[in-house]
Amino acid sequence: MSLSQSTRIRRDWSLEEVQALFDLPFNDLLFQAHGVHRQWFDPNAVQMSTLLSVQTGGCPEDCAYCPQSVHHNADLEVHALMSVQEVADKAATAKAAGATRLCMGAAWRSPAESGFARVLDMIRAVRAEGLETCVTLGMLTAGQAQRLKEAGLDYYNHNLDTSETHYRQVITTRTYQDRLDTLQNVRDAGMNVCCGGIIGLGEDVSDRVALLHTLATMEKHPESVPVNQLVAVEGTPLAGMPSIDWIEFVRVIAVARILMPASVVRLSAGREDMTDEVQALCFFAGANSIFYGEKLLTTPNPDAGQDRQLFERLGLRSLQPDGGVVSVGMS
Ligand code: SAM
Ligand code: DTB
Ligand code: SF4
Asked: Measured from the CA of 67, which atom of ligand 3 is nearest?
């Protein structure tokens, strides 16, 4: 980390303190969040990850938001696990476009051995292309986490999505504790944790408070905290959810930044629906990572050219794995 870092990293936040941050007048909250952001990060540097769905659809879990569940009827093309070569080619393309990390997702409840062994090869291949690696494969045993670490995996993504209370309204095929157990296995194996949530699942502010409180009181904060807006997909139970209040979304980013000052906060799914001005506010509030490239896993994301233009308008640069920054200008 760079700069002065005078804010202490705390893991003893109380629910009341988190709620009090949400209750601040917007300007006071943003001022505080931006101040913290500047102490820990270059405020004009944003980390860029590209997503790749290495296996799409047919998932046995029933996450109400997800188009890849077999329990729902989203219009989706199911795809078997990609070949290692295909993934290596996608990695090269993502790197050439300016991404520094490839995040690979599979629609699994947990990995089966045959697919898992191939994912280990994918991780080696993506590293060989010179990108950081992240995978999200569902629940992991301690042994699987160890093998991912040995293959050189940099980050494991496993979201808590919402509060423990609201979780039951959204997913019935696994528990919050299942999620926490996998996160512990990832930690114990010595990998970076990528863990965040989704805003717009019908949760109330107390659920957002509880989610951020859970993340911010972990024995070590997740190094990466994705804040997704629900992408409401036709055919999923949450297709009809009302769109969220963007001011409230910016608040979530700001509170995450204050609670976890050294973590990279990712402005994740949902940027397609955001104006440039909302994104600019999110970057001011402390977001410093995005998904870069025209597709998330199954739904659209702003294309690279649009993002390069946005970065140019805002004077943002790309945060490199070594902490340096480079221009993402019209390459
Ligand atoms: N199956 C694995 C799992 O659930 O951990 C990995 C893939 S899953 C698609 C990864 C994450 O994507 C979920 O935890 C959820 O947070 C996010 N996600 C899925 N569908 C979404 C949607 N429609 N809108 C926003 N985020 C979504
Ligand atoms: C995360 O927090 N968001 C990403 C990634 N981690 C795996 C997934 C977003 C998925 C959005 C819906 C879709 O494209 O299927
Ligand atoms: Fe499966 Fe992951 Fe989608 Fe849930 S979020 S249905 S576990 S792919």
From this structure: 3
